[in-house]
Write a structure and sequence with these properties.
CATH topology of the largest domain in chain A: Tetracycline Repressor, domain 2
CATH architecture of the largest domain in chain A: Orthogonal Bundle
Number of strands of chain A: 0
Largest interface: A-B, 47 and 47 residues
Number of helices of chain A: 9
Oligomer: homodimer
Low-confidence stretches of chain A: none
DNA sequence: GGGATTCTTGACAGATCGTTCAATAACTGC
DNA sequence: GCAGTTATTGAACGATCTGTCAAGAATCCC
């Protein structure tokens, strides 16, 4: 054994994530990460690897943060549609929070990298698929419980809710107030319910 | 008078716009713009100014490109809701086109710059407000014609359609196929109509 | 055709960025 | 307390980027 680290890895990754979230990948320099974390260059490189690896860690951290708003849905508990409302409310809250760093780190990563970077692309795809699966399960439950209006397919509901989830941060960023976003979510859920 | 330009300004701006659209602002170097346009550095600087000014021109060009899918809506012509369907179809087509450079240049600019750059911010805001006004007018017309379901407010419809417009390119980028997006748009319009 | 003006070409300066190297400091296990 | 190992610090290197400078080429007006 030898000299132990003088910092908390998780805390540092939080700060790194927030910095990337604020400024994007290309606009974040190592110097920015130094000031954000209070660490020296070499400490970052030794502990996490290069900038690219650090960004992948940030994506993982961000995905985990989002997952906490998507608790495992259980039949016989809350209504599936209320689960969706809860998640979209969390999306609105995060997006319109006054100290929200930016839009959505995943959206930012997707627009900044596209599919040029295979690692980033895989992480973003995995995130989308996980959200899609979570929403899809709730939509299927809602149908099974007879809570969807006639002619409303669960798969289509899934796509609609996903569009809300990914579109809301953009609208918030362009100045649409939180209550207006909430009203639209409420209307959508009301119109697809039986 | 003196030596005239040996290139078409509009064509060059098109190529510049596409390059920024593909790679984002920070990831596009002047060298990339040189190869994309076939022009030399100095020609670009002399004709358009610096990189920042070039990006603003690209945003203007992109906004004009989007506007052509939002023809002035006239009462007594096509149904307002069909106008909205047409616009969202254009959004889907652009987003899922195999040679689509990326998501949406405006979304990219919003996520990359946030509100740090006042010029870019203003252009993105103006774009959002213009789209919002266009959709809002159609929603109001739809209500005036009694085409909205009871309890469906035009302002809320506007927000919903905007979320679709800005969210669809993200979903397309994350692999959701065009027909699935189209189904969700059709469902949404069906559920808000009377 | 000559002169003035502008476009174009190539090269370069100033700055910044990501990454690495060498040296110092700090801690553990014996 | 000592040796070994690891974190930390500071400086430096190579590459890249934006913006500019000076020289050459091409065109229009008279």
């Amino acid at each position: 054994m030898a000299r132990p680290r003088q910092f908390d890895e998780d805390l540092v990754i939080d700060q790194v994530t927030r910095t990337f979230w604020e400024r994007g990948y290309a606009n974040t320099s190592i110097a920015d990460l130094e000031t954000a974390t209070g660490l020296g260059r070499q400490s970052l490189y030794c502990a996490f690897g290069d900038k690219h690896a650090l960004f992948l860690r940030a994506l993982e951290r961000y995905a985990a943060f989002g997952d906490q708003h998507m608790p495992p849905a259980a039949l016989n508990s809350t209504s599936p549609l209320e689960h969706l409302r809860y998640m979209l409310r969390a999306t609105i809250d995060t997006a319109t929070s006054p100290d929200a760093p930016g839009a959505c780190l995943m959206v930012q990563a997707m627009t900044e990298f596209g599919d040029t970077d295979v690692d980033v692309h895989a992480k973003c795809q995995a995130n989308s698929r996980r959200i899609e699966a979570w929403i899809g399960r709730l939509a299927a439950e809602a149908e099974a419980l007879g809570m969807l209006a006639p002619g409303v397919a669960p798969a289509t509901v899934t796509t609609l809710v996903m569009t809300q989830h990914f579109g809301i941060p953009i609208l918030a960023r362009s100045g649409v107030p939180a209550d207006q976003l909430q009203s639209s979510v409420d209307l959508l859920l009301k119109q697809i319910a039986s």
